[in-house]
Amino acid sequence: MGERLYDGDDLIGLCAALVALQILIVAARFYTRYMQKMRCGLDDYLILVALAGSLAKAIIYIVLAKLAGVGYHIDYIKSTAPQDLVLLEKGLYAIRILDFPVSVTPAKISILVFYARIFTVRRFQIFAYVVASLVLAHGTGVLFAAIFQCNPISYYWDKSIPNGTCPIQGVLFRAVSPLNVVTGLLILAMPMPFVWRLHAPRAQKMALTGVFLLGGLGTVASILRTIIYFMCTDEARGDITWYSVELGMLSLVESGVLVIAACLITIWPLITKLLNLVRRVFFGADRERQHRNWYMHSAQTYHIHTTIMSTTTSESQDELTRHSQDMGRWPQSSCSVPASLADLEDQRWSIFADGARDAEKGRGVESITT
User: Fold this and answer.
1) What is the structure's pLDDT at 285?
2) Cα–Cα distance, 28 to 13 (Å, whole number)
3) Whose CA is closest to 100, among 165, 175, 207?
4) Residue 248's CB: how many other CB atoms inside 10 A?
5) Nearest in space to 16 (alpha carbons), one of 61, 75, 49
6) pTM of the model
7) DSSP character at residue 151
8) What residue spans of 99-239 are helical by DSSP H?
């Protein structure tokens, strides 16, 4: 009789935590859109698809851990409840369809669509679209491969079907995982040159870098999964109920962190608003007033710069730019600025994007900040 060891509680706990956190963060994303009075874009709808896929995976893993023996060694399940293995194979088949195509792919494309919107440098946008096309092609290919990995399809969970075959089942994810890692690394690296070229306080650059790099946790999970697929495929297939805990946790972390990272980039204004509330509660109004003044100056700088640069000759523009660099800021003016801190936060990403574009073009606008 097989050994009765159980390791499924860790998987169930991770599922519950990631489900709650993803729902909270995605809700915050749409609340931020409502707070800013902004229409939802393609990246927002793609995140809903990724969230649905990630939640479906988590629910299936919980069911498999409760009803299909995931967390036990397969010898124990074969000796006590062999009928559970059919439910296990059906669940794993569904997870393979949901994993890359429905969870990871929409989340990655959502991030790339957001990049293409805020970074207005043409070369960057083209590169973002190329990477997004690669991610979409990869996800579509994996979807069809996962659906039709066995012939007939039902042979995946019913090996009693005569003449059934699964020619790519053992190598499917060993083949697709490396490209998934490569696209994840590209998404991480793409915005970094723009962030560190901005003439902004170092703390702001580091904060933005941290937000963008959070998706790196998902990429780490992708790398670990790839290592397991390459090194332990035969062993994992031989004890699938036991190894499904480790592989399932990595799968959930990869898709869950991608969803959360994609949303954290867009809820930055809400995070700042909450931090301002914390400043008022714990440090008094002075800190919050300094923060507001810093962004008021940033927004006013941006408005005056774009107004003057659009209404003067190229020679005057050069002279004004040199003057701004010498003085460290544009002169004070009665030009209109956003009326509230919420309005200022609405402009955060547009100012960031224009600052990145100016840095790319070498126009020397040193006061543009995030």
Assistant:
1) 54
2) 23
3) 175
4) 26
5) 61
6) 0.74
7) B
8) 105-118, 122-147, 172-189, 192-197, 202-213, 216-238
Which DSSP category does 153 fall into? G
Residues 6+ apart with CB under 8 A from 16: 58, 62
Are the C-beta atoms of 14 and 249 separated by less than 8 Å?
Answer: yes
CA distances from 181 to 32, 217, 232 (A): 30, 12, 18
Smallest Cα–Cα separation from 66: which of 88, 99, 95? 88
Contact 133, 175 (CB under 8 A): no
From 25, 44, 8, 55, select the one nearest 255 (Cα to Cα): 55
In the chain, the N- to C-terminal Cα span, in Å, equals 63
Position 209, amino acid: T
What is the rounded distance in angstroms from the CA atom of residue 194 to the CA atom of residue 353? 9
Amino acid letter, 227: I
Which residue positions in the chain have pLDDT lower than 50?
1, 288, 291-317, 319-321, 323-348, 350-351, 353-357, 359-360, 362-370
* Residues in CB range of 294: below 8 A, 6 or more apart: none
Tokens for 277, please give them.
Answer: 């509330």
Distance CA 227, CA 178 (A): 10
Digit-coded pLDDT (tens) for 274-293: 888 888 888 765 554 554 44
Residue 200 DSSP code:
S
Residue appearing with tokens 């207005």:
120
- Identify the burial level of 146 via C-beta atoms within 10 angstroms of its C-beta, where 0-12 means exposed, 13-18 middle and 19 or more buried: buried
